Amino acid sequence: MDLVCERNKLNSAVNNAQKAVSERSTLPILEGILLKTDNNTLTLTGNNTELAIRCRIESDVKEQGSVVVSSKIFSDIVKRLPDNRVHIEYKKDHNNIVTLRSGNSKFDILGIDPIDFPDIPKIISDNFITISAKKFNNMIKKTIFAVAQDETKPVFTGELLSIDNDEIRLVALDGFRLAIRNDKMDRNYGTNKVIIPGKNLSEISKILSDIDGDITIIFDDKSVQINTEEITIVSRLLSGNFINYEKIIPTEYKTRVIADTREFQDSIERASVILRDEKSNTVKLNINNNRIEITSSSEHGSVYEEMAANVEGLDIEIGFNSKYLIEILRAIDDESICMEFTNNVGPCIIKPIDGNSYIYFILPVKLAR
Amino acid sequence: MDLVCERNKLNSAVNNAQKAVSERSTLPILEGILLKTDNNTLTLTGNNTELAIRCRIESDVKEQGSVVVSSKIFSDIVKRLPDNRVHIEYKKDHNNIVTLRSGNSKFDILGIDPIDFPDIPKIISDNFITISAKKFNNMIKKTIFAVAQDETKPVFTGELLSIDNDEIRLVALDGFRLAIRNDKMDRNYGTNKVIIPGKNLSEISKILSDIDGDITIIFDDKSVQINTEEITIVSRLLSGNFINYEKIIPTEYKTRVIADTREFQDSIERASVILRDEKSNTVKLNINNNRIEITSSSEHGSVYEEMAANVEGLDIEIGFNSKYLIEILRAIDDESICMEFTNNVGPCIIKPIDGNSYIYFILPVKLAR
Known about the structure:
The first copy, chain A, is α+β, with helices and mostly antiparallel strands. Chain A is built from 6 helices and 26 strands. The first copy, chain A, folds into 3 domains: 2-116, DNA Polymerase III, subunit A, domain 2 (DNA Polymerase III, Chain A, domain 2), CATH 3.10.150.10; 127-246, DNA Polymerase III, subunit A, domain 2 (DNA Polymerase III, Chain A, domain 2, Roll); 249-362, Roll (DNA Polymerase III, Chain A, domain 2). Chain A has helices spanning 7-17, 71-80, 133-141, 198-208, 261-272, 322-330; strands at 2-6, 32-38, 41-47, 51-58, 60-63, 66-70, 85-90, 97-102, 105-112, 127-132, 158-164, 167-173, 177-184, 191-197, 214-219, 223-227, 231-236, 255-260, 282-288, 291-298, 301-308, 310-313, 316-321, 336-341, 348-351, 358-362. Chain A is elongated, with a radius of gyration of 25 Å. The interface between A and B is medium-sized, with 30 and 30 residues. Strand 21 (301-308) of chain A pairs antiparallel with strand 9 of chain B, so a sheet runs across the interface. Chains A, B: It holds the Pfam family DNA_pol3_beta. Chains A, B: Residues 131-242 form the DNA polymerase III beta sliding clamp central domain.
């Protein structure tokens, strides 16, 4: 392999491919990035067998070839290269050494034979959608916090991606809260449901942050593939059935509150200041007379907050895990929110005043008497 | 105690006082901040018995008093207060509760009787200097990295502050390198030498970053006191004799190199990329023919760097701990540096091309053959 490419493009490709590289693996090759030429393109691939990311950059290739290099060492070198012109050379018979040259610097690092580098699953399917990268990333960022962290029900460590004609929906739930984001696409794409692992979506989200324009998402039974102009991402899917979450969302309410989102969030955050351990993490809402009283207490003291709100229906006193409530409020950009309650043992639904771009659902905690 | 003050001033005073509060102490009162009124001033004091910081803010005091509050809880509350107007109230008979009110928020937190809060040492002395805060802070920041981290020789966990008429000097050394910064003051202040604990200087440096104008530094045998307009900092001194470091600085050299500081630093940093553990941390310099060759090697590979430099005297091949060398180079703002070598087992001296604002000294490491 013998090629010349640009440091800045190489650096951004390494940073992206690295997101699918194992931090620590019993197989050293999984801690590596595969460099491979394809005519005048250099591809960089990270693949931890759950998630694979392949990035393409233009390159002036004198001699085709492929080699795996340590992801950590290679990325540390690339980001410090003194000149934007980088020369990469690898000859198998030369002690497996990969040589990088840039400016007056020369780096010799160990190359690994790519023969054992895992293949990326090939997706052959007619099921696909096209959506703006920003839109899809926004849906991930505003639901991902509700993905289950423990593995007792593996299916809830993923998010349900549901396609229904021109509607796209992401759903995450962890047994205490539920996060749903809806958006529209430009045309109908039939129906489809897949479950994508949450930790892969987190990495995908970081990559999409830098992407303008559209992405294509292709599905088969086992995998989902996301294509941008220069990057191909393949994630395995989770098997199993997602819960019928729509059934658990109440359609009626006894109390309905319209409140300023930031004012409510700030109040809950202030009330949480004295809640410093898992055991005492409850904020209490007392809703009456067009007013929300927010109180909390712990061994460290107590907090009383009060804010105006538009309240319709019955008075209610209800407690929530403050961390869960704050995470939901942080995911909402709207100036005002609508909260619906049935009673103080049933869920609270948080949704927009107009439209259905999101639904959040949070279970209350029992109040100490 | 009953007073009204401004949140923003209170917040910055809490942040400063907090730097002298124990993170974890067997005495809960040392994890607290002392609030104390003095006519129309509120003082906030943190005191871990090694370092004390007292901050004064204007306050509308209705009833004088004092109380200690948990530093963590109090600072978390203050930074989130909704309104710039803060009302603080404490009545001993009211279950020792301190009440903060701001906007529609009310916080009740536990107050601790201030009777056991440690006194700040009083310094009665005619020994003092006046110097710009920025200047003194710059001297700290550019020497503090060379303070010894291990406690085997306690005196080297501090920095020597030496006053000689209108000259001020800070010295840190850890057995592998030595860092000296010199500056001038506006007038003569006699002579004085004290050793200030490095970890206290780190906290002092953070406070001085926000201070414009001059500070006064007062010394006695046991303590040093730094006064700004609104803050009083008292640090205990380390006892013992600092090494006669001037004796170990060579006055002659066999090789003298003038090099571009950033280019040299970048080369050393690149050569360090493959040096990933304590055992193999050596960069080798090969100085000859108006050129510095920088090489390194480890199990991860090898690096070769080369840069032009102005070399006078004998050729030399010498090795250094890359981390130590990088820390020194990062502390130098000058465009070019002068390096002097005697031989490859003697120290390297790094100093400015003109003047004596700094002297750094680094011992070489033996090169493997």
